[in-house]
TrEMBL record:
This is ABC transporter transmembrane region domain-containing protein. GO terms for biological process: oligopeptide export from mitochondrion. Residues 73-95 have a biased composition (Low complexity). It comes from Toxoplasma gondii COUG. Its EC number is 3.6.3.44. GO terms for molecular function: ABC-type oligopeptide transporter activity; ATP binding; ATP hydrolysis activity. SMART domains: AAA (SM00382).
C-alpha cells in the first residue's frame, strides 16, 4: 500500500510530467506557426540579387551609377507635375508643399519619376482596382503632394514606387528607365521613405537616426567617418525638429528608447523617423567616406550621395500644425 507521502510525490510527479508535455506541445505548435509565417521572409532572404537586372552584371550601387549615368543625370528643364487619377478618389498636387526646383540650384539633385497608364489591384481584392490608368510625372527637383480620402491609393503609389507590388498594367520609370528592369533592392536604395508605421529600434535616438547611413554604407561598401556621421545626424535632427524635444531627454541623443519607443509621443516618433530619412539625404563633405568614393550629384554646389527621392506617406500626421509647417518648410529647402 502506498503511504500518504508516496501518493503526494506521485501526484507532484504527474503534474510535473503533464506540464512538461504541455510545454512540448505548445513549442511544437509555435515552431510550425513560425515556419509558416517566416516562409516568405526566409525565401526572400535566400534569393540572391538578380544580376541580369543590373547593367553589365554590376553588383554594387556605386558601379551601377557609373554604368548608368543617364539615370542620375539632372534634367535641365522642368515641366509641371501631372496629377494622377484614382478609381476611388481624386488626388491632386498639394499647393501647401509647393512645386518646383530648389531655389538657387542650377542643377537639381534627383531624377524624374513617371507613372504611365498604371493599373493596380491588390492580389486578395482583384475585383476592386485601386488605381486605374494613373499618369503622373514628377520632374527632377520638384516637390509634389498628393491628396485624397482614405483608400484612394496614396499609399499604394508609394508601395509601387518601392516595388513592394508590381503594376498589373503600365509601367513606372526613373529618368525614362523602367524600374521593372532594375533590381528591386537597388530601386529601394534610391528612395528614402517615411511611412505611416513609425518603426524604431530599441536603441538610442542617435542610433535610430544614423541607422540609415550605416545601411547605405553597407550597400555602397563605404564607411562614413564618425565626424561626418555626427554632422549629418545633427543636421537631420534640426531639420526634423528632433532637437527641440531631445534636449529635454535625460541623455539627449544618447537616450535609450524602450520597445516600440512607447515612452515617446506619436509626433516625436514621426520626427525621429523623418530625421532618419533626411540623414541619408544630407549633403556629404568631400572627405565623408573613408573607403572608396561614390559618384554623386550636385545639390547647390555640394556633393551628395545616397537616395535620390524622398517619399513621405503621411509622415507628419501626428504633428501639431506649427511643427508640421516648420518640418515641411525645412524639407522643401
Amino acid at each position: 500500500a502506498l503511504s500518504l507521502g508516496d501518493v503526494t510525490a506521485l501526484a507532484m510527479y504527474c503534474v510535473m510530467a503533464g506540464s512538461s508535455l504541455q510545454g512540448c506541445v505548445t513549442a511544437y505548435g509555435d515552431v510550425h506557426r513560425t515556419l509558416g509565417t517566416a516562409g516568405n521572409v526566409l525565401s526572400a532572404l535566400a534569393q540572391s540579387a538578380s544580376e541580369e537586372k543590373r547593367p553589365g552584371g554590376v553588383a554594387t550601387k556605386a558601379a551601377f551609377k557609373r554604368r548608368l549615368s543617364p539615370l542620375f543625370a539632372s534634367s535641365t528643364s522642368s515641366s509641371p507635375a501631372s496629377s494622377p487619377s484614382s478609381s476611388s478618389g481624386s488626388v491632386s498636387p498639394s499647393s501647401g508643399w509647393g512645386l518646383g526646383r530648389t531655389p538657387g540650384c542650377g542643377r537639381a539633385r534627383g531624377m524624374d519619376v513617371t507613372f504611365k497608364n498604371v493599373h493596380f489591384a491588390y492580389p486578395d481584392r482583384l475585383a476592386q482596382p485601386v488605381l486605374r490608368g494613373v499618369d503622373l510625372h514628377v520632374p527632377s527637383g520638384a516637390f509634389l503632394g498628393i491628396l485624397g480620402p482614405s483608400g484612394s491609393g496614396k499609399s499604394t503609389l508609394a508601395a509601387l514606387l518601392l516595388r513592394l507590388y508590381e503594376p498589373e498594367e503600365g509601367e513606372i520609370r526613373f529618368n525614362n528607365t523602367p524600374i521593372g528592369s532594375l533590381d528591386s533592392q537597388f530601386v529601394r536604395s534610391l528612395i528614402s521613405p517615411v511611412t505611416q508605421e513609425n518603426l524604431l529600434l530599441a536603441k538610442s535616438v542617435r542610433e535610430n537616426v544614423e541607422y540609415s547611413v550605416h545601411a547605405d554604407d553597407l550597400l555602397n561598401a563605404t564607411q562614413t567617418s564618425p565626424a561626418e556621421l555626427a554632422r549629418r545626424v545633427d543636421a537631420a535632427c534640426r531639420l526634423a525638429a528632433v532637437s527641440e524635444f531631445v534636449s529635454q531627454l535625460p541623455e539627449q541623443l544618447e537616450t535609450l528608447l524602450d520597445e516600440d519607443a512607447l515612452s515617446l509621443s506619436g509626433g516625436q516618433r514621426q520626427r525621429i523617423c523623418l530625421a532618419r530619412a533626411l540623414c541619408r539625404l544630407a549633403p556629404s563633405s568631400p572627405a565623408s567616406a573613408s573607403s572608396r568614393e561614390l559618384p554623386s550629384a550636385s545639390l547647390c554646389g555640394e556633393e551628395t550621395r545616397g537616395p535620390s527621392l524622398l517619399l513621405l506617406d503621411e509622415a507628419t500626421s501626428a504633428l501639431d500644425v506649427p511643427t508640421e509647417r516648420q518640418v515641411l518648410g525645412h524639407v522643401t529647402q
